[in-house]
Amino acid sequence: MRIVKLTEESKKDILKNMLKRSPDNYGTYEATVKEIVENVHQNGDKALFEYTHKFDKADINASNVKVTDEEIEEAYKEVDAELLEVIRKAIKNIKEYHELQKRNSWITTKENGIMLGQKITPLKYVGVYVPGGKAAYPSTVLMNVVPAHVAGVENIIMTTPCDATGKVYPTTLVAAKEAGVTAVYKAGGAQAIAALAFGTESIPKVDKIVGPGNIFVALAKRTVYGHVSIDSIAGPSEILVLSDGSADPKYIAADLLSQAEHDELASAILVTTDAEFANKVSEWVDKFTEKLSRKEIIQKSLDNFGYILLADTLEEGIDVTNEIAPEHLEIMTKNPYDTMTKIRNAGAMFLGEYSSEPLGDYFAGPNHVLPTNGTARFFSPLGVDDFIKKSSIISYSRDALKDVYKDVAKFADSEYLTAHANSIRVRFED
């Protein structure tokens, strides 16, 4: 990996390079995606099935677009029993973690009959998009479905691509069943997002769409936002490791590569204060890369967006970490808990050298749907709050309103909203 001395100039160059991976730079495909979305919006199933045949080579129609109970039963026969047990353990961990995020409605009372509060209501219909195509992603199913289930969503509708024969990955179907999905439909790409957003004859319209996908899926989610809610527009995966040189360089190298293998746009960065340690990590990166199955993707990722940054002090390393605001942050310092308190911007933090990032991807419990491309400065991981809405509650008695009605009317008058003022005064003045 390239080793770069951390300066103001090198930091600016790296941040600029990282932003090239943003979904905001996918403009080349916008017109195509808008055409697909509008076609499905106007023509429903007809357009959806035509695109499925065009892109996935599958003959899908109203009679087979919904995954049947028989298909799910068949999927269970094809999934390794040990893997099924692991999926169930992961669901337990994810559920327990997200149960702690649940909110309750509340009401408080004040003098003269004032009641104020907040009502929590789960969304009724949620659409979960799960990628297919090149690989199966049962972990994506769990991370998007379990918190929705914990929140109390009644209808969790999943779409995922099928192969040319109309078959969905067995692990995806088993994970969906175990996590509590209401229905699974064989649809992928921008056309699936449009179907969820507007509804078709076969696929119900939802209130919110969550889940990752390729460029077309990301742009489609941005296009339909406003008609429905979305979780976020996810960019390529990224990891930053912050180390003072006290950790095992072999572990650091392995963790950096765990994200670099995602795709050529993935980013893997080590920030350290120890030059000798930096060289050892780089050597281990080279050794591991040669042996890994996705070494061509890894190498392109490292060449494009991989860095080892040498900082003069740990404080300088913390500052650049906060500026990058990584999706995944591993803190490998002598006292990672103290270092953590100085981090403002990170999607998920992994503390100590036995808290490897894949724990978060699959098993530990916290959600792996995280803010990318610096959006951890203002976004949070997917969670129960993403599947609820809040309504304010206001109740005043006559006595309570009488005490303040002149104040409210005066405020309305100051904004020249006389009808607002009148709706208050009319209750006490002729």
From TrEMBL:
Binding sites annotated in the UniProt record for NAD(+): 129, 191, 214
Binding of substrate, residues: 237, 259, 262, 328, 361, 415, 420
SUPFAM superfamilies assigned: ALDH-like
Any one GO cellular component localisation term in the record: cytosol
Reactions accelerated catalytically: L-histidinol + 2 NAD(+) + H2O = L-histidine + 2 NADH + 3 H(+)
Pathway assigned in UniProt: Amino-acid biosynthesis; L-histidine biosynthesis; L-histidine from 5-phospho-alpha-D-ribose 1-diphosphate: step 9/9
EC numbers: 1.1.1.23
Annotated PROSITE patterns: HISOL_DEHYDROGENASE
Keywords recorded for this protein, A-Z: Amino-acid biosynthesis, Histidine biosynthesis, Metal-binding, NAD, Oxidoreductase, Zinc
Amino acids binding Zn(2+): 259, 262, 361, 420
Catalytic site: 327-328
EC class (word): oxidoreductase
Record GO biological process: L-histidine biosynthetic process
Co-factor requirement: Zn(2+)
GO molecular function, one term: zinc ion binding
Entry note: cofactor: Binds 1 zinc ion per subunit.
Role, per record: Catalyzes the sequential NAD-dependent oxidations of L-histidinol to L-histidinaldehyde and then to L-histidine.
Family: Belongs to the histidinol dehydrogenase family.
Protein name: Histidinol dehydrogenase
Species in which this protein is naturally found: Eubacterium ruminantium
Taxonomic lineage from the root: Bacteria, Bacillati, Bacillota, Clostridia, Eubacteriales
